[in-house]
Amino acid sequence: MPPVPGWALLSSGCAPVLLIAGWAVAASLEGPAYDPATQTISVLAAHGASGYWVMTGAFLALGACHLLTAWGLRAAAPAGRAALAGGGLAALAVVLLPTPSSGGSLHHGSAAAVGFALLAVWPVLATDGSGAAPWALRPAPSLVATAVMVAGAVWFLVETHRHGVAGVAERVVTAVQSLWPFVVVTSCRHRPQDRDRPST
Questions:
Q1: From CA 12, how far away is CA 118, in angstroms rounded?
Q2: How does 31-65 read in b/e, with b if 16+ C-beta sit within 10 Å?
Q3: Residue 135 neighbours by CB under 8 Å, 6+ apart
């Protein structure tokens, strides 16, 4: 039996597709008043936004996908699976604590920050030090993935502080974070199975 069920491939693969499609459609509904280069994704899910329902649905789908993937990713270390699930719960919390139509929100910002942090560290926490581990769960690729996500988060904070291209930075890091679970699941599904080792 594979270390990861087939449905986890679907849940992990849907996460980046639904997220990116959500922000693209929501931005088009918002029209020229919305600048995707400088404005965040959360603005699209604010009450009163034209694409509110689309972006809210995308966040809900993202959270559900991460929760399902964490449940099925049996090959990963428990701490990593817990962090991935926590990232999914943070996406759901973002929906429950939307940003206001104007100004900021401490609760929304805190939920988003927790989600960013959990999804950045889960690759390292999920590592398997054994030589038989799927390549995406080995220490080196996991460390690179986490480093890229942390660098993206720092870039986003810098751009937010300087009122620069925060929207671009946020989209890059969230796209990477939503895509990495699919990379991990794919590496697990295509790993040659060790017939001598019982499946868990």
A1: 16
A2: eeebebeebbbbbbbbeebebbebbbbbbbbbbbb
A3: 141, 187, 191
Could you say which DSSP state residue 5 is in? -
Token code pair at residue 129 = 């030090």
How far apart, in whole angstroms, are the C-alpha atoms of residue 97 and residue 111?
8
How far is it, in rounded angstroms, from Cα 165 to Cα 158?
9
pLDDT tens per residue, range 12-44: 999 999 999 999 999 999 999 899 999 999 899
- Reading the block at residue 37, the tokens are 């280069």
* pTM for this prediction: 0.89
DSSP code per residue over 120-133: HHHHHHT---STTS
Q: Which amino acid is located at 190 in the chain?
A: H
Element of type H or E holding 184: helix 166-189
- Does residue 66 sit in helix, strand or coil? helix
Instruction: Provide, for the chain, the percentages of residues in helix, strand and coil under a 3-state DSSP scheme, each rounded to the nearest 5.
Output: 70, 0, 30
